[in-house]
Amino acid sequence: MESRKVVKSVLYILWIISVLSACAPLSPTPVLLSQETVQWVAPTIPTTTILTAVVGVTCADIDAGWGRDWPAVLETLEQLLAANQSCGPEPLTSKLYAAYFNYATDLEQAQQLELATAQYQAAFQLDPQRQEAFNALLRLGALPDPTPVTCTSSLRASPDPAPVTTPDITQFVTLEGDQLWWHEQPFEVKGVNYYPRQTPWRRFLEEFDVEQVTIELDLIQQAGFNTLRIFLWYEPLFTCEPETAIPQEAVFAKLDTLFRLAQERDLKLIVTLNDLPDLVFRPLYTDWARYDTQTVYIVRRYRNTPAILAWDLRNEGDLDYGAQGGDTARFTQAEVLAWLEHVSGLVKANDSYHLITAGWWGDPTVTGSSVDFLSFHHWYDAQQLATRIADYRGKVTLPLLLEEVGYHSWATAPTGARDEALHKRLC
Q: What pLDDT score was predicted for residue 147?
């Protein structure tokens, strides 16, 4: 051990595909969303498609009616989506959400509350993760009932997916003191938060193309990266009630393929669990038993997989207790951290081979009792980053992983958010 070179305990991972920050929370007076300020998913190749006369509408019709004729905008967006078209880098579903919400605010201000509620509900059902429609419906006492889960009677819970063999533990990344090790060498994380370029976020697991993913992983490896962070949304992975953990084998097969492709390229994976959870009807943080079975299934299925560096228990769970400030908290810090402690124990009980972390937006030191190393995200300037690192090092001795870092890459982002000097200092 003495011959091993000591390296610094701050382990950097860069996010080369930047995302936009969340929209500001609603005040009691509804606030309109513009097309330019709507949060959207990881960017795709910017394209603008002009439709044929068969469809009868074009992308320009969205701009023509925006803020003037919401029903016409909604109809245009529905036709574009039905024709599988695109209008630039922002997904049409994001524009549709904003159109529903903005139409609802106009109707609410006109005291047409029944019609406004219907539009807020349409926005919420399109994307329950967004705060704006949720807050409006909460304010109006009009949150819809959850859609009952449909389940085919022939489906049954699967047997234990855990491999029966014992893995070669020398192939796993381990933690000794404040240093990660792999193959008897210090392992410094250099990686990207990853979705396939053409099928990000919710489309990732169900639609990704193996050939395209293979090309992208080759590019990532050739660029000198050694780690990918991916996000698992449980809804497409399972069917029926969450408590039964009945897998969608066709979807899991895609995940199996991704793990195999990473393994073949010596790329390690930080696998983020509990992405895009239900925080409204049966909330993740207060209804543990509903989701535990699915988490256990995933962890046991892949516990022998050496390509996995760590399980990331939750992406930016601190935002759910208001880490960004303002009126953004849905839960208390105590509720979130109690859940984190619980799910950490659950994962450790079912997989003793992989490390555990939790990617926090703000101060990660509060997660220390539940993780093997701390992970935090930084979307500010380089000087603040140095200050944060010094602060966290002064509080705990666990290694630090900078899990997300960057600045806005959207073409219409404010000039200050795209400052090239800032980019150089951060990277």
A: 62
Q: How far is CA 307 from CA 115, 249, 256, 257, in A?
A: 51, 20, 11, 12
Q: Give the number of other Cβ atoms within 10 Å of residue 12's Cβ.
A: 16
User: In this structure, are residues 113 and 133 in contact, taking their beta carbons and an 8 Å threshold?
Assistant: no
- Burial class, 152, CB count within 10 angstroms (exposed 0-12 / middle 13-18 / buried 19+): exposed
Distance CA 270, CA 210 (A): 20
Q: Label residue 206 by pLDDT band (50, 70, 90).
A: confident
Tens of pLDDT, residue by residue over 227-237, are: 999 999 999 99
Instruction: Report domain extents, the chain.
Output: 10-18+189-426, 25-145
pTM: 0.76
pLDDT at 91: 86
What is the rounded average pLDDT for all residues in the chain?
Answer: 83
pLDDT bin (cut points 50, 70, 90) of residue 368 is very high
Statement: residue 238 has pLDDT above 80: yes
Output the 3-class SS for the chain. CCCCCCCCCEEECCCCCCCCCCCCCCCCCCCCCCCCCCCCCCCCCCCECCCCCCCCCCCHHHHHHCCCCHHHHHHHHHHHHHCCCCECCCCHHHHHHHHHHHHHHHHHHCCCHHHHHHHHHHHHHHCCCCHHHHHHHHHHCCCCCCCCCCCCCCCCCCCCCCCCCCCCHHHCCEEECCEEEECCEECCCCEEECCCCCCCHHHHHHHCCHHHHHHHHHHHHHCCCCEEEEEEEHHHHEECCHHHCEECHHHHHHHHHHHHHHHHCCCEEEEEEEECCCCCCCCCCCCHHHHHHHHHHHHHHCCCCCCEEEEEEEECHHHHHCCCCCCCCCCCHHHHHHHHHHHHHHHHHHCCCCEEEEEECCCHHHHHHHCCCEEEEECCCHHHHHHHHHHHHHHCCCCEEEEEECCCCCCCCCHHHHCHHHHHHHC
Report whether pLDDT(286) > 80: yes
Six-digit token string for 113:
């509350």
Angle at 162 between CA 161 and CA 165, to 5 degrees: 135
In the numeric block, which tokens belong to residue 122? Answer: 């349409």
- Answer with the residue of higher pLDDT: 127 or 410: 127
CATH no. for 10-18+189-426: 3.20.20.80
